[in-house]
Amino acid sequence: xxxxxxxxxxxxxxxxxxxxxxxxxxxxxxxxxxxxxxxxxxxxxxxxxxxxxxxxxxxxxxxxxxxxxxxxxxxxxxxxxxxxxxxxxxxxxxxxxxxxxxxxxxxxxxxxxxxxxxxxxxxxxxxxxxxxxxxxxxxxxxxxxxxxxxxxxxxxxxxxxxxxxxxxxxxxxxxxxxxxxxxxxxxxxxxxxxxxxxxxxxxxxxxxxxxxxxxxxxxxxxxxxxxxxxxxxxxxxxxxxxxxxxxxxxxxxxxxxxxxxxxxxxxxxxxxxxxxxxxxxxxxxxxxxxxxxxxxxxxxxxxxxxxxxxxxxxxxxxxxxxxxxxxxxxxxxxxxxxxxxxxxxxxxxxxxxxxxxxxxxxxxxxxxxxxxxxxxxxxxxxxxxxxxxxxxxxxxxxxxxxxxxxxxxxxxxxxxxxxxxxxxxxxxxxxxxxxxxxxxxxxxxxxxxxxxxxxxxxxxxxxxxxxxxxxxxxxxxxxxxxxxxxxxxxxxxxxxxxxxxxxxxxxxxxxxxxxxxxxxxxxxxxxxxxxxxxxxxxxxxxxxxxxxxxxxxxxxxxxxxxxxxxxxxxxxxxxxxxxxxxxxxxxxxxxxxxxxxxxxxxxxxxxxxxxxxxxxxxxxxxxxxxxxxxxxxxxxxxxxxxxxxxxxxxxxxxxxxxxxxxxxxxxxxxxxxxxxxxxxxxxxxxxxxxxxxxxxxxxxxxxxxxxxxxxxxxxxxxxxxxxxxxxxxxxxxxxxxxxxxxxxxxxxxxxxxxxxxxxxxxxxxxxxxxxxxxxxxxxxxxxxxxxxxxxxxxxxxxxxxxxxxxxxxxxxxxxxxxxxxxxxxxxxxxxxxxxxxxxxxxxxxxxxxxxxxxxxxxxxxxxxxxxxxxxxxxxxxxxxxxxxxxxxxxxxxxxxxxxxxxxxxxxxxxxxxxxxxxxxxxxxxxxxxxxxxxxxxxxxxxxxxxxxxxxxxxxxxxxxxxxxxxxxxxxxxxxxxxxxxxxxxxxxxxxxxxxxxxxxxxxxxxxxxxxxxxxxxxxxxxxxxxxxxxxxxxxxxxxxxxxxxxxxxxxxxxxxxxxxxxxxxxxxxxxxxxxxxxxxxxxxxxxxxxxxxxxxxxxxxxxxxxxxxxxxxxxxxxxxxxxxxxxxxxxxxxxxxxxxxxxxxxxxxxxxxxxxxxxx
Length: 1160
Hints:
nine-stranded mixed sheet; alpha+beta; eight-stranded mixed sheet; 28 strands
């Protein structure tokens, strides 16, 4: 736990050197922390931050140890700060406290370092000299700050609205709306109108603006609601009290009032709010997993002992063997698991390690893959619509010029005709722009996030749920996410006659399994007897134990434990070592144990032998009611078994009898231990021995016993039980991993645990499959790999054990480099950088720290991996909703553009078959309703049956283009046939104005019914025929379609002059609906048309599109990695499709300002 890079590359201990010349060198970008004007203290905040991140014994020595810190910070380890302090008296120089010859700024010597030009986001601005002048602890507050983090300012509704509006499609819509409104207003107030004709030309522009406002409002309110839910989640009572020593007395103060220089008390269960140096105490062990990722409890060594050891090294003596285990550092965000003590506060608020990570997290998110693809689509639509409008205008203008010699109208009338040409051309652009697309995306996201909350996913960043749908890999924590983070006794063998659990097949073949069948001189093989102890459910097991046996188990576990009962999150639980907590919980829940303190009081404890890591055991001696003494021993089962000569004969008897352990019994117990280990169980043994007197003759004269001395009497023990303890998997995890595999999502385990345990648990839940080429490796080996080797190893990496936060970042960075969409889970402060770097960061709602939640985009409210799978399902539902709508919208738009183009060119008056108001209904109302209908489909059970789309995959696939072009052809064929064949096919008298109006109404009605039936077609994106799947679960779809049909009927009956239509008879209604219904069987035929045929045919189709803007698009190469064969398979049709394909990857990042250029 010392400097992570000991000076010199020799082995540890031998190579440990104190390099005081480098210990205080400022990190690049953090030079500002070393500059403080008028500083009365010996140290700047920069000096004190060098103690941690990483922990540095060198910096601790360079600052003069605890004695130097006391003097330099104007404090006292015994009496703490003065309760009356305002300004500090006098000034202490750095050289007065540091060891002789220590440079004040490391490699910069004693000169104040200059800024490196690189600025670190975690560095706050310095406070003015008059800050809090005259107040309590004024100098301390000015130099070292208060123990508060600046509150993250929530965005106002206007800021959220502006963020929502900054979307390429919305900007494109705004341009279309402004042009449409300007021309509409001119037509309304400057153009000629027939008597009774509605002046509604301006409605189109206003309607598009209304659509934009709705999208911005829905998106803004959704973001605001998510932020409010997140703030409520984080509204913990942070203002708790802590105990410090002020003026020699222990006082309780607010955590916000803790100052640098305070002496703070440590108690088991405390969450540490500040950084500091351990003064002294008894058996203090801290859990720093949330702060550093270190999974083991870390024992704290007093600062004076550490400084003495370092002083010896400075004086040229050989370092202590355990020099790297000396740890006087107290880290903010960690938790005291055992012991009591005091520490000197060295950093608070923004300067603490917790605060620095919090500050560094405030960065902006990058665009999601769908955003990039929609931006690309906006570019394409602008070019396609602009190109179509330009061609139409050129054709109509040529036609206008050709007719000029025969045109005898006035100059004003000719001007009006020319303006009508221009308006018709602009109409094409407006029709081409998909007004409903942003609304479909926003509604799908809003609907999904609301429903995901019910599935325990709080979506903080709205667009994260669509990204989740295409996640290709999930890097998951083990503890708490895959497992329950609750060590539990899952197996026990008691004597030779009772056991429960532990019958699973070992994940690895254990040594005893290998020895079960081995060659023998007498025959081909000798079989070692497996565990022959009867096995039963835990309830039956507990029922068969006598009260005496239960008392032995309860008492031995209670006295051989330092854990205690307490409250955690409002629940009564045990606090202490996870193994001890598991044993005590087992006794309480199954054996009727009294409260642990009561058990300890009832036991007459005579002597305690503390746990010793060398002997792997602890012991407690109690006086029995009969005057004898009993030594209870708990420890590593294989070590205890060696010292046992007897075992409990029958646990069901009130009078405990023991029988001798035979060789066969010993082999059987060894096999049990080995079998438990093979099932990833941690095995703990329990034994006892009775003595007539205590201390026995061998231990006479020893008041304090160590395990070394206890070893003299540690023999002839009676084996009570072998416990198998594990952190069990969450019940839904195995099924969730299978769902991920089915969905093509590669799950990797990233854990701080050792390789053996990590691999075994990964195997158990189905992540680690070495037989399929899966790789498991440890963090230190992983981070030493070269860039090329990383790219080679990571695709098959399934388990990363003993990993640090840096390893997690390297893994995420490499996966993103490989073109993966990466989801990461994390709960600790140290996980925040990886959560921020990933495409989707999942923080734990229960176990997660505030910093982890701040960095994440989705919060798992139940800390359960299975909730991630639900997130994937909803993410895919969002992506599918957008694609369904896009498929529907583009069919409408292509058909409407083509109809407008063809009918305007063929018309004598350059008028489109669908007038402006009719197009408004088709192009806006229908699209908006369709967005509502298609965006609210919940995920079907088949949504996980396909692989995720890669970042480089096109937004519009070949299958979608097949449906869009197929339906557009059918709709155009039907509409153009009834438009041009009005007289010959349908018998309309086109010279009669009333008949001509009936004809155009019939064309309009048929076109709308084609869209209504095609909307049903678009409920599926694959080639399956059942378009009604799940329709009964989506009431929105029924209601919205009823409104659309009702609206259309109403328009035909009462639309009159506004829509320039007339009522239709029953025959015409029947024909309209019948022709519209052709969409459904035609859609089935399109689905049956093989995709590979479509891919073969499409490249030979050449759609006449102006080539001016195309080269720019094609020149932009995508940067995403993609298999060329797969690219060829997924390549959609050429222009307009090919244009879109060429727009993937980097093209999407071009600023939206380019939209303006595409209109010029």
